[in-house]
């Protein structure tokens, strides 16, 4: 169902520009492309509900009715921002492994499941390499929603166990991460597809990390944000969130978005280097940074546009630098999975390339806990 431009209430838009009411269950446009919310106005510091010690303190930045209904929450957000120095550059590390299920995915899933429950959906389908699935499992358990999750057979057993203990129905699927995503789309006709890669409300939750970083820095924006990217939801979340803050007059500029991918699977980096507007399909090698091993991101066009629009950059990290980076962060007291740890060699490569220097205020996001990747870390 498309809607005219004069309709009231939050509006979703597909790539053709067709508009849809946001209060109806929908995970993609009629043209088969991903949906985004029409740009929202953002909020300032006066609209923060300081009585709430979770990301829902920024609920006024969410599209209606989410700003006014009871959320499905486990206390996600309000994660530490700590400063560490790498080769003379001070970096604020946003420790998203401190979220309830151990990754930043809780931000988006909390908002997505809140929307799904409000729309009366009691059974959902998800596909995940681990973190997204365990988050959907936990929040669906909280909301009383049946969760059915397709997982690559090679996924960390810790992530699968977590999802199963939350009560989700887990099905292991052989093949690549992309093959699992393709299978989920095929099954979406029979079960509502609450995909963290497709569902537009997921990005509305992830965008709140931008508001939180802004508050962490004394209501200032960093000059650059560095994130690992697979599907690119953190890229888009930062672009949306900081974009709203800029429209609201709360910051005077949007930070550059810097992206790290493992060289064994770096479709976004390759597209950036080749000046392409979308990712070309190709085969990639396996990588220990399994959370970023996505060969064909659903929102590739939007992610590439967000990086370029911010004046950002993307770098690929060799596989032999990933596990040593886990050890380096662990010796600083931070235990994260290889997907997260890649930001350390990425920082060094970005400095060598002249993309960052000591004058920058940099925030790098540590996306997930090392406790979920024990099978990969025995030799670190």
UniProtKB/TrEMBL annotation:
<keyword id="KW-0663">Pyridoxal phosphate</keyword>
<dbReference type="InterPro" id="IPR000634">
    <property type="entry name" value="Ser/Thr_deHydtase_PyrdxlP-BS"/>
</dbReference>
<dbReference type="InterPro" id="IPR001926">
    <property type="entry name" value="TrpB-like_PALP"/>
</dbReference>
<protein>
    <submittedName>
        <fullName>Threonine synthase</fullName>
    </submittedName>
</protein>
<dbReference type="InterPro" id="IPR036052">
    <property type="entry name" value="TrpB-like_PALP_sf"/>
</dbReference>
<dbReference type="Pfam" id="PF00291">
    <property type="entry name" value="PALP"/>
</dbReference>
<dbReference type="InterPro" id="IPR050147">
    <property type="entry name" value="Ser/Thr_Dehydratase"/>
</dbReference>
<feature type="region of interest" description="Disordered">
    <location>
        <begin position="1"/>
        <end position="32"/>
    </location>
</feature>
<keyword id="KW-0456">Lyase</keyword>
<feature type="domain" description="Tryptophan synthase beta chain-like PALP">
    <location>
        <begin position="72"/>
        <end position="368"/>
    </location>
</feature>
<feature type="compositionally biased region" description="Basic and acidic residues">
    <location>
        <begin position="15"/>
        <end position="31"/>
    </location>
</feature>
